[in-house]
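Appendix B, example 12.
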Amino acid sequence: MGSHGKGASRVDTVVTDVAAGHVAIGTRMPRRLRHARSIEDLRVLARRRLPRAVFEFFDGGAEDESTLRDNRAAFERWRLVPRMMVGVGTVDTATEIAGSRANWPIVIAPTGAPGFAWPRADIAIARAAATFGIPYTLSSSATCSLEDVAREAAGAPWFQPYILRDRPFFARLIDRAEVAGYQTLVLTVDMPTGGKRERDFRNDFGVPFHWTARNVCDFASRPAWAMQLIRNGVPRLENLIGLDRSGPDISGAASSVGRNYDPDFDWRGFEAIRKRWPRTLLVKGILHPDDAHRAVELGAQGIIVSNHGGRQLDGAIASLDALPAIVAAVGDRVPVIVDSGVRRGSDIVKARALGATAVMIGRATLYGAAAGGAAGAQRALEILTEEIVRTMRLCGMRSLDDLGRGWLVRQDAQPPGAAMAAGEGSEA
């Protein structure tokens, strides 16, 4: 992750170049990526390049997608309250996340099957994360093996195992992560069963997967993507090969993991994993403060407030709305990270002001990778980090450590000073 000094150097470089209107970190990239000014721009590029079924697999949510939409709306319910004439020529965006110093309050979330977005997208995104000095989390449903990512991606990636009914296979995944040198395990606990993502069914992209005239025509409608798939081969869920006698192809492995989540996993199972894993253990998928408190009491070293990006339980509380109560429940004992719905640097600043140590982003860098591979993933992080710096400057924030609830007001609440102003007016 690098030292604090390296983080500060990177921050200073970014701040200088943002002031001049240029990006600081980057390699030469196609014009379409350079001209992408937002994560939404990258999303549009991804939608143009990918077959509909693949794009909607990444983009969609469960059932009516009410939670997917509310994750965005939750950020929009908060408004920033800037302060002026502070002096923000230099701002400090570095922070500590789960015991390591990071240049930005961002962690890359685990995403399944990213190789369908771009060949070896897992490694491309991990390398982009390392360039920006932030953690990357590899999913057990990744399309590169955990050993390959540990070997080929710079930095210190985290690993996320789904809790599987096949306990020996699950235990081997954890042991493999330890042997490969992963220092942080992100235990995802919000999937006792898979969510009902209806877009996938409408696109004939359900599980188990079957080739149909509809999805074959869909894939053929994106010839550049299809030729890339033919040249590189169909992606495999490398970490799940052998699960429930599944074959190495994507459809077999995806089917197996879909029916092999463990609905009987409970707190006793969590305690067993805590004893088995000797390094940092974070718990992802927590939305209730009592669960956060209990996880910390049983040895969790960090809480990730998450509704899985709206992909599992539709109608669940927005992650950002759940954040303040969970921060209050765990206090300063462990870091609290929040995911779901992050699309702007200002979203990241708002989450930090509400008590989050950092945010997790999944779709943002996945859209970038789908739009342009490694360069696209890098562009996504350039956009978000530029926006963080710009937001901090426009709000008069010199450091992330300055942030607190005083920087925010609910959209439907009175702005700071309104009550005083109303009182003075009545006296006049």
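Confidence is low (pLDDT under 50) at residues 1-26, 422-428. The longest strand covers residues 280-286.
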